[in-house]
Design a protein that fits this description.
Blueprint lengths: L29 E6 L3 E6 L9 E3 L18 E7 L28 H6 L8 E4 L10 E5 L4 E9 L5 H13 L4 E4 L13 E3 L6 E7 L10 E10 L4 E3 L4 H12 L13
Parallel strand pairs: 4-12
Antiparallel strand pairs: 1-5, 1-8, 2-3, 2-4, 6-7, 7-11, 8-9, 9-12, 10-11
Length: 266
């Protein structure tokens, strides 16, 4: 194969306002996250009629990366965690594959998942506390390295010793980082409704603080998680339309971890 230089400076789309649905800011309270090391496989979104490509292993790992195009490299159709199989896949010659409504990822079968609960990774639901969910969550370009720094900030929705040991301490001590899928309040902005942070290099806790008298945060912990040297700007979960992408997001919610505690019942 002849030498071909990498050139990502060619702009392929006009920076034009969406006149029907202008963009607006804000994130919904509910998000999901997983450990970065639990990401086993990523499936990219392809337009109708295109073949699907996959990257096996972590996102930054090998796989068939050369088949991923500039048009779809930031559109993620499915994130498969360790132990999950993708029963949504069909024959590679089936031209309707790209339009299928997402089905639930299953671990072989529902029975197998129930009987062997510890053999597959799970998602973790986050309901952000505080006055503004995920306030100041952002992305910033570093011109020196040509990469992006992504920052996730959120306030815990509760306090207490059990929550501290079961959520806060593991969150802060995971040095491989986290992957988080957020939900914008803007549901009509096309493929921007479900931003993904941490998929390249993982979001790692960089700050955590607790102010017992802070009424805005309810006296709960606030966190800052940072992903550095990410090669891609905004990445989003996308199935071609909002409804199907919401179904995919909801399918992950069905397989979140089981709380160890029994709650605050009397």
């Amino acid at each position: 194969m002849a030498y071909t230089p990498c050139d990502s400076s060619q702009i392929g789309m006009n920076a034009q306002k969406n006149c029907l649905f202008p963009a607006y800011a804000g994130l919904q309270t509910l998000a999901i996250m997983c450990r970065w090391e639990d990401v086993n496989r990523i499936i990219y979104y392809h337009e109708h009629g295109e073949s699907e490509s996959e990257a096996s292993g972590s996102y930054s790992g090998g796989g068939e990366q050369e088949t991923v195009t500039m048009q779809n490299k930031n559109r993620i159709k499915r994130i498969l965690l360790k132990g999950w199989v993708n029963e949504d896949e069909k024959d590679e010659n089936d031209s309707t594959q790209g339009d299928q409504v997402p089905s639930e990822p299953t671990h072989g079968s529902d029975t197998a998942a129930e009987e062997d609960d510890e053999t597959y990774a799970k998602w973790i639901a986050i309901e952000a506390g505080g006055a503004t969910p995920y306030a100041d969550t952002s992305e910033e370009y570093d011109a020196d390295s040509g990469t992006f720094t992504k920052t996730l900030t959120f306030t815990a929705p509760r306090a207490g010793a059990e929550f501290s040991s079961e959520f806060i301490e593991p969150l802060l001590r995971n040095k491989n980082g986290w992957v988080v899928v957020l939900q914008r309040k803007d549901k009509k902005g096309g493929d921007s409704a479900f931003p993904i942070l941490g998929l390249d290099n993982g979001l790692i806790a960089s700050e955590a603080s607790l102010n017992y008298t802070d009424g805005e945060n309810g006296g709960c912990y606030s966190f800052t998680l940072t992903e550095t040297y990410a090669p891609n700007a905004e990445m989003d979960l996308w199935w071609g339309n909002y409804h199907d992408t919401q179904n995919e997001f909801n399918s992950y919610l069905k397989y979140t971890i089981d709380d160890h505690g029994e709650g605050d019942e009397d």
